[in-house]
């Protein structure tokens, strides 16, 4: 208890923490008599980007890696935490179960389980879908981000690229670690790993993680404090060395999230505050929260047939249940209550058989894969009957009447307009009479029934239920020919087949069924009788890659590759039963350079890409004429993106290393007509975005001065992203008045650590967003127009704390 209090005292005082950081990094802290030598290096990173182990600098693909050292320096817990360090990668922040992923401007569609992402995510060699992609980083060997179409070797949904998460496998020997991370907002993260030798040829590795943190926004309502975290993970892996040529690996993963709902900060006139950075909100979501229960079983078999032939086989089964019930109005006003949820109960079986051949002239990777996925999804929208009345009335009527037609004073003034100045009572008959007058004189599209305030406080729910059965088959071959000592040529082909069966059912709301006298009909989710559809898509994709080695440590490459993402169905739009979402077909031209230069002091990775997407899928948050409020739906279009990505690492001295990652991007898209959040039809829209090198970069500094005892490491990184929001199709002029909206992102992060001479103990002080930069990342909400309840999301404020770790 005393230790916990002392730690809490340190991390709860920013001035004390900053002072400690400065003292630790000052020249006085560095011993004058240097007896131990530690040098920074440009480390060799082994990857499996081409389904075989290679040095990343020898792979003619644009690939970025995130190492255990990077995870430690940044405190990353999932892919959400790493995208700012990898140019061209974007991951939606704030929702672990609904994190959209984009590579080079090619993004995934909405929450619909009937569609697929444009970026494929793999964990331990197996494909993982949707909510599973944010698996916790515990005892991870590396994360690989492969850019551009990777369908030849990775197949399913790798149209824009691949994220490959590689956990550590059991090794020989007995060793492990224990790590503790504490910080402000009551952060408590504990992680441990143990690697055990069970016999001469059987090895076990077990790791576990627990992470808890309080919310960074105080909620005066009943929905919990936004930003709170609570997740745990466990993995056990067994390696059985059957012979010198064969090994069998078995694994089990468990991952659980049960935390506060994603924050919805009200910024409208009915919210507690109009400033999103007031640190206090009033959210009243009933049973709100974000949760995921996930487990997976895996098996791998590797066998060396002879000196040239080898085979690999793997299979995995993963199941997960999620929910994400979120406040949709940003207020604690019962007359404006809205919440949304995304419930999923799904499982996926993935398998792959690989046969490889290698000699001095050619390396061949070939294989088959099969996956089958069962999906259940429910998408509820819940309103209070008070807010339902406002949606029934619509903005035109509310503009005539006032904020709420159930307010006695508003109703008296409003109804007297139709009765010669005599206000009506608040009986059901009076509301029905006014409704008939309004339909005849103002708007015939007004729903044919208003209902009286006698039903106030009840909850009204509409839900879309979906089920899906998806199968994917693939066969591929990729051959890399060594045509000379310096020149090689790779050719690859894959044929993919996708079969999807999908169903919709949106019954009349239970509240309407229980109160037939009100004459209610579904507003947000149109009533749909059980409907099903099926569709088959297939495509042959490939790649051609020319690779020329300039020196032993540098190469250039040129490639042409194609990618494919199957079509699908929109969970909320039954019309896609007859008109499914079109597939995405991708063509990409790429030129690249990789090299360690100047006696391996400077590592440079530079790529130019030109990517075209036919049938590009885009999620719209808009209000069509048939919708009571803005909803998400999917449209198709064409996208042409090009750019230059650059990653530089410069070993200035043996103790100082600088890094820079940046990109230049030019994106153009044209989509079919759609309705925006204001209900306006947008047609023939050409969306153009351009980002210069100075608009998006991450700079890093690592310093490891020599000490008389132990090892000191100082890490700084600065992340800058210029405003991207004002040029997007979802931007409305009214957003510009919101503090922090459209501001440039500026993040300064630091970590200073000391490790003892035997590498057993580590102590570290760290800080994230040290300048406390404020930024609004999104504005929306189902009631943004009809009942004037816009909500915003913000990024996490300054955090700081202490790390302690022990290796054994």
Automatic annotation (TrEMBL):
Gene3D superfamilies: TonB-dependent receptor, beta-barrel domain
One GO term describing the cellular component: cell outer membrane
PROSITE patterns: TONB_DEPENDENT_REC_3 (PS52016)
Key words of the record: Cell outer membrane, Ion transport, Iron, Iron transport, Membrane, Receptor, Signal, TonB box, Transmembrane, Transmembrane beta strand, Transport
Assigned protein family: Belongs to the TonB-dependent receptor family.
Membrane found in the keyword field: yes
Stored InterPro entries: Beta-barrel_TonB, Beta-barrel_TonB_sf, Plug_dom, TonB-dep_rcpt-like
Domain of life: Bacteria
Protein name: Iron complex outermembrane receptor protein
Localization annotation: Cell outer membrane
Signal peptide: 1-31
TonB-dependent receptor plug domain mapped to chain residues: 57-162
GO-annotated biological processes: iron ion transport
Membrane topology, record value: Multi-pass membrane protein
Domain called TonB-dependent receptor-like beta-barrel: residue spans: 240-770
PANTHER family the UniProt entry points to: FERRICHROME IRON RECEPTOR-RELATED, TONB-DEPENDENT OUTER MEMBRANE RECEPTOR
Pfam families assigned to the protein according to its UniProt record, in alphabetical order: Plug, TonB_dep_Rec_b-barrel
